[in-house]
Design goal:
This protein has helices at 4-7, 23-44, 51-57, 59-75, 79-93, 213-240, and strands at residues 96-97, 102-103, 108-109, 116-117, 122-123, 128-129, 134-136, 148-149, 154-155, 160-162, 166-167, 172-173, 178-179, 187-190, 195-201, 206-209. By secondary structure, the chain is α/β, with parallel strands linked by helices. It has a single domain (4-209), classed as Hexapeptide repeat proteins (UDP N-Acetylglucosamine Acyltransferase, domain 1, 3 Solenoid), CATH 2.160.10. The protein has a 7-stranded mixed beta sheet. A 5-stranded parallel beta sheet has the order 1-4-7-10-13. A 4-stranded parallel beta sheet has the order 2-5-8-11, with no helix packed on it. Helix 4 (59-75) runs antiparallel to helix 5 (79-93).
Length: 251
């Protein structure tokens, strides 16, 4: 995963401007990040038909624009102005990103309505969130209390990741899952509370499924119930005896 310094938008460098400072360099970096956001949406969303469509109509792209400006304003020592700009972005996009959250490159928010990203969240490169995702915290202390997502993490619609947990690189969080503990790299997590059902070998993209004791138990119970129902039906048929045959009338 990228280091926190690399994730922070305030320390990024552009291949053209390098580490140069000044308004022109900052403008070039901002344009490069917007182009990156649009290109990521074009690659990941098959519904995207043109770059202009993405730029004008994708709330995830707009939310990232608001966040980068708010992040810089906060870093400059204007937290109230940063929060107000973040609040304005939430009103316009339905996506709430705290100005102090740190987000890496090629981040994509798909649809996005209801996404909440807390203050101490750290998101690595090439991560993908769908609508309704919450990266929240439980502690009331001023400390790291929100999740860390390493590179290439995908979080499904409506999933909740709560607390200062770490989601390992390449992990997949299923839709509607609730995750309250750290997840190793390459794992697939589903359920409430979330539990690991598979690992992905990132070297060859092979999915290695794990035993699921809960599912095995449910499957065994279903087979037992089906067998008992068949036996009861057979016993009921024996008690009733053979069906009487209707005698036909001769003419």
């Amino acid at each position: 995963m990228s280091s926190p310094e690399a994730v922070s938008p305030t320390s990024e460098s552009h291949p053209v401007t390098g580490s140069a400072t000044g308004p022109i360099a900052a403008l070039l970096r901002a344009i490069a990040r917007v182009r990156e956001d649009v290109d990521v949406a074009m690659r990941r969303d098959p519904a995207a038909r043109s770059r202009l469509e993405v730029l004008l109509t994708y709330p995830g792209v707009h939310a990232l624009l608001f966040h980068r400006v708010a992040h810089r304003i906060d870093a400059a020592g204007w937290p109230l102005a940063a929060r107000f700009l973040s609040h304005l972005g939430r009103m316009l996009t339905g996506i709430e990103i705290h100005p102090r959250a740190r987000i890496g490159h090629e981040f994509f928010i798909d649809h996005g309505m209801g996404v909440v990203i807390g203050e101490t969240t750290i998101i690595g490169d090439r991560c993908h969130l769908l609508q309704g995702v919450t990266l929240g915290g439980t502690s009331t202390r001023r400390e790291k209390r929100h999740p860390t997502l390493e590179d290439d993490v995908v979080v499904g619609a409506g999933a909740k990741i709560i607390g200062a947990v770490t989601i390992g690189a390449g992990a997949r969080i299923g839709a509607g899952s609730v995750v309250v503990s750290s997840v190793p790299a390459g794992a697939t997590v589903v359920g409430v509370p979330g539990h690991i059902i598979a690992y992905t070998n990132r070297s060859n993209e092979t999915v290695e499924r794990l035993p699921d004791p809960e599912w095995d138990r449910i499957d065994a119970l279903e087979r037992r119930i089906a067998g008992l129902e068949a036996r009861l039906a057979a016993q009921a048929a024996e008690v009733r005896g053979p069906e009487p045959r209707a005698e036909g009338r001769g003419w």
